[in-house]
Automatic annotation (TrEMBL):
<dbReference type="InterPro" id="IPR000825">
    <property type="entry name" value="SUF_FeS_clus_asmbl_SufBD_core"/>
</dbReference>
<protein>
    <recommendedName>
        <fullName>SUF system FeS cluster assembly SufBD core domain-containing protein</fullName>
    </recommendedName>
</protein>
<dbReference type="InterPro" id="IPR055346">
    <property type="entry name" value="Fe-S_cluster_assembly_SufBD"/>
</dbReference>
<dbReference type="GO" id="GO:0016226">
    <property type="term" value="P:iron-sulfur cluster assembly"/>
</dbReference>
<dbReference type="InterPro" id="IPR037284">
    <property type="entry name" value="SUF_FeS_clus_asmbl_SufBD_sf"/>
</dbReference>
<dbReference type="Pfam" id="PF01458">
    <property type="entry name" value="SUFBD_core"/>
</dbReference>
<feature type="domain" description="SUF system FeS cluster assembly SufBD core">
    <location>
        <begin position="218"/>
        <end position="451"/>
    </location>
</feature>
C-alpha cells in the first residue's frame, strides 16, 4: 500500500485538523480521490484530536483498506477505535508507563504488511468436535453447535447478544493502541455463545490461530478476534492455541489477537491459552473478561514462543461471590526474547475470590516482565485475593522486571502477595535429589522443568498439555546447549 498523501500528512503535522471522513457510521482515515476531498474531510473534523504520528496513521489506513466490507455489527467498535487512534501516540519506554520495561521497537524495525488472503493450507486437525481456525487473522472454518462466525449468525437472540457485547467493547476504557488496531483491522469475529444452563465442559472449543510470514522482508500483521459468551449457569472450556506454519514455523509476522469473554451469573469458563510461535514473530494480545455474580473463570497460560510477546489480561468482577483463578508461565530463552504479562483484576463487590500465580524462566539474553495489578475497591468487603510471582534467572545476561501491585480500599479483606527472583534453585532441593543418586546438573535440569510444568500441568486437556510440555522440554534443552 502507498504512503499517506502529502495533503493528509501536512494536515496531520499542522495539528490544526484531522484527516477524517465520516462515512456513517464508521470513521474513515482516508478517502481515495482528489486531494480536495482530503482537505474537506480534515476541515470537517477540525474539532477532533490531532493524528498521533505517521506510523500509527499508516497502519490504521492499511488496516481499514484491508478489511473491505464487514459486518455492520462491528461498526460501533471500529468507529470508536478509529477515533481513539487519532490521538494515540506509538508507545515508548519513556512516554508510556505501561511500556516502561517493555521494548517494542522490534515492531518498528520492519515494514508492516497485511495478508491479501489466508495461507492455502488445510485447517489443522483438532482432537475436539468444536473447533475454530484462523489463518493469518482470517476466520477460515468453524465447527460446533454453539460456534459461528459473526457474519453467519442469523437475526435473533444470539445475534443481538453479540451485537450488544461488541457495542459495549467500544467503551472499554483501559484499551491501548494494539486493542484499537485489532478493532479496526478485524475482518470477522468468531463467536462462542453457550445458552443458559448448557454445559460444554466435556466438549471444549478448540480455537486455533495459525500464522505465516510473507517472506518479502516485511512483518505481516493479522488481527483475529473472538467473543465468548457463557450465559447464566452455562459452562464452557476454551482452548486457545497460537502457532506458526510454513517455513521456519511461520517466519516473521505480527499477531495481534483479542479475546473477549463474558461470564454471566453462575456460569463457568475454563480458559487454556498456549502461545508457541516463531522466534522472529511478534505477539501482542488482549484478553478481556467480565464476570457476573457467582461466576467462575479459570485461566492457564503457557507462552514459550515469539521474539516479542506482550499479553494484556484485564478482568473485572461485576457481582458478589465471584471466583477468579489465574496461572501463567513464560519462558524467555532465545536471543533478546521478551515475555511480558500486564494483568489487571478489579474487584468491586463483596466476597470476591481471586488467586494469581505467575512463573517465568529467563536464560541467555531473555527478558521477562510482570506487572500484576489487583484493585480491591471500597464495596469489595470480605474479599480473599492472593498474588504470587516467582522468576528464575538461568543466565547472568537474563533480565526480569517484576512489579506486583495490590491496591486495597476496602477494610475487611484477606489479601496477600509475594514476589521472588532467584538465580538458582534451593540448595536443599538439589541436595535432596543428589542424596538419591542424581548428579547436580540433572537435578537442576529436573527442577527447571518442574518449575514450568507446575503451571503447564494445570491445562485440563491432556493432548494440549502433553504437546506443550514436550515443546517446553525441547526448548529448555536447547537453551542449556546455548549456554555452553
Amino acid at each position: 500500500m502507498s504512503s499517506p498523501s502529502p495533503a493528509l500528512c501536512a494536515a496531520a503535522a499542522a495539528s490544526c485538523s484531522t484527516p477524517l471522513r465520516v462515512a456513517s457510521p464508521v470513521v474513515r482515515f482516508r478517502r481515495s480521490g482528489a486531494p480536495a476531498s482530503v482537505v474537506s474531510a480534515a476541515r470537517a473534523a477540525a474539532a477532533a484530536p490531532a493524528v498521533s504520528d505517521d506510523l500509527v496513521l499508516r497502519i490504521a489506513e492499511q488496516l481499514e483498506d484491508s478489511v473491505g466490507a464487514s459486518s455492520p455489527l462491528l461498526d460501533p467498535l471500529r468507529s470508536a477505535s478509529a477515533l481513539s487512534l487519532l490521538s494515540t501516540r506509538w508507545p515508548t519506554r519513556r512516554s508510556n508507563e505501561a511500556y516502561r520495561f517493555t521494548d517494542i521497537s522490534y515492531l518498528r524495525s520492519l515494514p508492516i504488511s497485511l495478508p491479501s488472503q489466508p495461507l492455502a493450507v488445510a485447517p489443522p486437525a483438532s482432537p475436539y468436535a468444536s473447533h475454530v481456525h484462523f489463518s493469518d487473522g482470517v476466520l477460515t472454518s468453524s465447527s460446533g453447535a454453539h460456534v459461528s462466525a459473526l457474519a453467519d449468525i442469523p437475526p435473533g437472540r444470539v445475534r443481538d447478544r453479540a451485537a450488544a457485547a461488541l457495542a459495549a467493547s467500544a467503551e472499554f476504557a483501559d484499551k491501548d493502541i494494539f486493542y484499537d488496531f485489532n478493532a479496526v483491522g478485524a475482518k470477522d469475529v468468531a463467536v462462542v455463545h453457550v445458552p443458559e444452563g448448557v454445559s460444554m465442559a466435556d466438549d471444549p472449543v478448540h480455537i486455533m490461530f495459525s500464522y505465516s510470514g510473507c517472506g518479502d522482508g516485511s512483518m505481516m500483521m493479522s488481527n483475529p478476534r473472538v467473543l465468548v459468551v457463557a450465559e447464566k449457569g452455562a459452562e464452557v472450556a476454551i482452548i486457545e492455541e497460537h502457532f506458526g506454519v510454513g517455513q521456519e514455523d511461520g517466519g516473521c509476522y505480527w499477531a495481534n489477537p483479542v479475546m473477549e469473554i463474558i461470564v454471566e451469573e453462575n456460569a463457568k469458563v475454563v480458559h487454556s491459552y498456549v502461545q508457541q510461535q516463531s522466534f522472529v514473530a511478534a505477539h501482542t494480545k488482549w484478553t478481556v473478561v467480565q464476570q457476573n455474580t457467582s461466576s467462575n473463570y479459570e485461566f492457564v497460560e503457557a507462552s514459550i514462543g515469539a521474539r516479542l510477546n506482550r499479553h494484556n489480561l484485564h478482568i473485572q468482577q461485576l457481582g458478589p461471590e465471584t471466583n477468579t483463578q489465574l496461572s501463567t508461565f513464560h519462558f524467555s530463552a532465545q536471543n533478546k526474547q521478551i515475555h511480558d504479562l500486564h494483568s489487571k483484576l478489579i474487584l468491586d463487590h463483596p466476597r470476591g475470590r481471586s488467586h494469581q500465580i505467575h512463573r517465568l524462566i529467563a536464560s541467555g539474553t531473555g527478558n521477562g516482565i510482570f506487572d500484576g495489578n489487583i484493585k480491591v475497591n471500597r464495596y469489595a468487603q470480605q474479599t480473599d485475593a492472593g498474588q504470587e510471582t516467582k522468576c528464575l534467572l538461568l543466565s547472568s545476561k537474563a533480565l526480569v522486571n517484576v512489579k506486583p501491585n495490590l491496591q486495597i480500599i476496602a477494610d475487611d479483606v484477606k489479601c496477600t502477595h509475594g514476589a521472588a527472583i532467584s538465580g538458582e534453585h534451593d540448595p536443599n532441593a538439589i541436595y535432596f535429589l543428589q542424596a538419591r543418586g542424581i548428579d547436580a546438573k540433572t537435578a537442576a535440569d529436573a527442577l527447571n522443568f518442574a518449575f514450568g510444568a507446575h503451571v503447564i500441568n494445570q491445562i485440563p486437556f491432556k493432548p494440549i498439555e502433553k504437546k506443550t510440555l514436550s515443546h517446553f522440554k525441547a526448548l529448555l534443552a536447547s537453551s542449556r546447549q546455548n549456554e555452553k
